[in-house]
Amino acid sequence: MLKTSALVVGAGHCGLAMSRCLADRCIDHVVLERGEVAHSWRTQRWDSLRLLTPNWMTRLPGFSYRGDDADGYLRAPDVAELIEGYAKESAAPVRANTTVTSVRRAEGGYVVQTDQDMWHTRSVVLAPGASTVPKVPVLQGGVPTGITTLTPLDYRNPGQLPDGAVLVVGASASGIQIAAELHRSGRQVSVAVGEHVRMPRTYRGKDILWWMDGAGLLDERYDEVPDLVRARNLPSMQLVGSPDRTTVDLNSLSQAGVQLVGRLAGIRDGIAQFSGSLPNMCTLADLKLERLLDTIDAWATKAGWDNADPPRRFAPTTVAAAPPLTLDLRSGAIRTILWATGFRPDLSWLDVGVFDRKGNVRHDGGVTASPGLYLIGMPFLRRRKSTLIDGAAADAADLSRHLAHYLDCN
Amino acid sequence: MTTMQTPVDNGVNVEALLGVRDALAETPEIAQFQWRATVSWIGGTHSRSTVDTFYGFGEQQHHKTTFTHDIDHPLAFAAQDNGISPVEYVLVALGGCLTAGIASIAQHRKIQLRSVQATVEADEDLHGILGADPEIRNGFTGVRVSYQIDADATPEQIKALVAQSQKRSAVYDILTNPTPVTVTVDVP
Questions:
Q1: b vs e for B112-131, b when ≥16 Cβ sit within 10 Å of the residue's Cβ?
Q2: Which residues of B touch A266 (CB under 8 A)?
Q3: Cβ of B172 and A277 within 8 Å?
Q4: pLDDT by residue (tens digit) across A341-365?
Q5: Domain residue limits at A277
Q6: How confident is the model over A162-212, as pLDDT tens digits?
Q7: Does the interface ipTM go beyond 0.85?
Q8: Contact B175/A276, CB-based, under 8 Å?
Q9: Structural contact between residues A361 and A354, judged by C-beta atoms closer than 8 angstroms
Q10: B84, B71 in Cβ contact below 8 A?
Q11: What domains can you pick out in chain B, each with its CATH number?
Q12: Quick check: B163 and A262 CB within 8 A?
């Protein structure tokens, strides 16, 4: 059996950030990766996808973006290349094409079984990626046969879909981006809208994330937010990275001709049923955006950014007077349903009792109750930015410190 | 906007509610509730409902007293108008639920309420229940709630209270989303 002090599962940006921090602490470790470095960025991203964060925010421990387009947004292959470059530069001890099949507790740590070999490690860092498995609602069972269904992980481009109208379920980053692209391809598109986080791409002449970063909103800590359960379950921001820095929100979608309907609440006898809560879902998001802009404006004044463009407020989301409550899926009108209903990590191989009743890993800022077992890269793990590339550095620094202390004491 | 001197008191024990939420994390099964009402026919379109028990927190629960309500239809329906109509109970339930939510959320957000009034209106096309037009549904074609709220808060904070109350309201959810309904009958 191979031995190590720390074993990192996953060579995405989080696993590699952790590896870098462990190396800086001279902790011998290995990073296991089921595919190549940045596997999901190579294999699970649609063609037009760009990073939601601008290039200047691409900061990792000991590394930052060096290109000449600081305000641009990387395409998925560029992200993969960047992460690969980071792995090389860090000389990260990555073992690629090694799939972990089980992790279980053992004397003095954990035994990790892979499809290649077996490891004994004193500690484990889970960096499986928060968006590895699509979360599709149970009601998908009611979708009539003959309708093509896919998730953002399978989606590549409009050409892959049959002709005809599309129902996109979900209005977070993936849902609105794909809905806009499918609509541009000439298809009729309806988007089922539940809770969402409305966000302009730019505000007062700068990227909205520049303001959030500056005002410290992305650094907000998990042990300081009033409602952590809510913060961890918040849908992703309605953002798209595009060279022209356009805002894609529900207003721009409906102005373009996309139909907005309520949250998909059920499918009965082949008929999709949409919630009547659409107006309130939009009001909630509009009010939340106003509060965010209030916070940003207050910070801008305090921090002396008054020379930025003047504050503004965005028009409330327009909702049709009577959006349809049902849609007959058997009529042939809808040919494709795209489930943009969120993702979860794949931890099916973790045989340690750290799961809650909903199958999520219980953790305190990435520290599980099982000594020496850590998790990184999950929503609001330690900070609001924990799932952004830019969030990995601070979380990896904290968790590697905890891990080093654990190794010292055991 | 909140006055710092006087503690906010909307008469809602938010600590108790938050305590329940914390307790659910350890014993999720106590969250399983069952509500019940019995309705007995009196005569004509007049019925009387009785509500006294429900199940929750792992055991049978009793209201402080047995509540009865008369349900009938108005004179305009050639009925006796011994009570409000069933559809009006739905309006009462929605307004009551949203208003309870507003009071609770305001308490949690330390917003003192002075007055809250909801006007609930619903539209219905009688072609449906009379069977006169199969294209028309029986139920409401739309429901509107308008609130008048006087509180120690900004207009945005008050709007946010009302929005959050909808997000957490059982009756709002029941009205806006489909629910499976099973009706059985025992014949003596």
A1: bbeebebebebebbeebeee
A2: 177-178
A3: yes
A4: 999 999 999 999 999 988 999 999 9
A5: 134-339
A6: 999 999 999 999 999 999 999 999 999 999 999 999 999 999 999 999 999
A7: yes
A8: yes
A9: yes
A10: yes
A11: 10-84 (3.30.300.20), 85-178 (3.30.300.20)
A12: no
